Amino acid sequence: MDLIRLTARFGKRYAGQFALVITLQLVTTLATLYLPDLNADIINNGVAQADVPYIWRVGRTMLLVALVQIVAAIGAVWFASQVAMKTGRDIRAAVYDRVSGFTSEDMARFGTATLVTRGTNDVQQVQMTFLLFMNFMVAAPIMAVGGIVMALRQDAGMSWLVVTAVLVLAVVVGIIAALLMPMFKRMQVKLDNINGLLREQIAGIRVVRAFGREDYEEQRFHTANEEISRISLNIGRVFVTMFPVIMLILNLATAAVLWFGGHRVDDGLVEVGSLTAFMQYLMQILMAVMMGVFMLMMLPRAIVCADRVEEVLGHEVDTAAAEGASISEGTVRFEDVSYTYPGAEKPVLEGVSFEARPGTTTAIIGSTGSGKTTLVGLLPRLYSPTSGRVLIDGVPVSAIARADLVGAVAMVPQKPWLFSGTVASNLRIGKPDATDDELWAALRTAQAGFVDNLDMPIAQGGTNVSGGQRQRLCIARMLVSDPKVYVFDDSFSALDAATEANLNVAMREDARDKTVIVVAQKVSSIRHADQILVMEAGRIVARGTHNELLAQSETYREIAQSQEVDA
């Protein structure tokens, strides 16, 4: 079972504390089982015989046992909480580490919403179930078995009552578990759906408002909300039915003990104190079963959650790296590269080959959907080619350690993203030890003159700055990291012509020994590139300089004419 494997794997670091929890739970349970026996002794030998000194003597023993029980119970809960919280922390960290290494295909396969749910809600369910296991399931079997033994010591003639009550409770528990398991599985799926929908609506709120689709999106959320509410209500109905049934069984068992036990006392077969102790032991046995029931309330959902967490942790991520593979110059070469998205009928890239050398600029242009962004995404291993090879300095990127690859290749994505913090914290992502002078130099090159303070606050996603400002800050971030290969994925689309021209001039000095690859929609942005690759339907249909392509490529000529760009 994934739940057991998961908690065992991450909880083994705390085996010493776990053993201490079991020991303390054992002490607590034994003390709990001993108290009714002492109580029976007081009634039978003290009260019945009017022996007050005996009552005080046994009473002091009961008080001491009760104190031991309290201290052991507090200690058990304390250490169990420590183990459970630390185990949950480690599982969350492992999920985060695994997800952070996912490729774009992996992210698309799982989906952002479900990964968020699995790393938070699912881990929390596993953590809480582990805590309940240590608090209840260690003590429950000991109390149940010990209670049966102690009850039979008091009056073996009523053992059939114990067997009957336990069997009836076991049947009720089995029915509950069978009902809850599929319900909890559906509930986690519904939780994924509503998280994904809410995330989509918050991220796209401007589009929703721009097209006046508030009512439609509200209805979508209402439908998803109703679905998760409906399944939650069904689970609640099972719980609401369960507790009265269990209490009915407990009360019937108590009444049966008083009825049949009273007759046995009247017949002289058992003493009053022993009957009292038997009833207490029966209640302890049934309470132990109730602990198991309470555990089973959490268990079906925890099993589903553990399966989902293990699916993430068990997903293989390509992290292979050849020893000694390094990047010294930054020469990029694509050799007959093809790529097909998972589940797609046709490849988005097919037979792409080119070389980009240090000190040169390679530009990629083409219509929307021609595969430009996918092509440059293969370089930092956001995707892995379906066939062919992507090499840097003659070494396949799949054989370069991840840390070396990200240090050598920096990319400004098509959709620039900034993290909540400050300008300085965002710029230092690629180089944590960068000095303030290095940050200001990168900002000047990126034409980020709007920054007058490195502590200028940045909201999540950079929503407190304009699109052009986000692009320039992302460019500055790339410059700070000082990679061997610069990749610009349509990174100048929000810049005006004057700012773009100044940026190109400023970057010539920084990029004189770098390999620069630029994806662009505007011909004016790439007309001075050393080589321009024209893409169409995932293939390179033409290559050359601006003037050469104007003369040789009809596709490039049409793009240039549509933008009113000439030689």
Using only C-alpha atoms, the radius of gyration works out to 35 Å
CATH superfamily of the largest domain: ABC transporter type 1, transmembrane domain
Total E-strand runs: 12
Major beta-sheet overview: 6 strands, mixed
Strand order of the largest sheet: 6-9-10-3-11-12
Which fold name is given in CATH as the topology of the largest domain?
ABC transporter transmembrane region fold
Number of separate helices: 18
Order of helices and strands: HHHHHHHHHHEEEHEEHEEHHEHEHEEEHH
Q: Structural class per helix/strand content?
A: alpha/beta
Detail the poorly predicted runs.
320-324
Q: State the CATH class of the largest domain.
A: Mainly Alpha
Range of strand content: 5-15%
Estimate percent helicity.
55-70%
Shape verdict: elongated
- Measure the end-to-end span: 68 Å
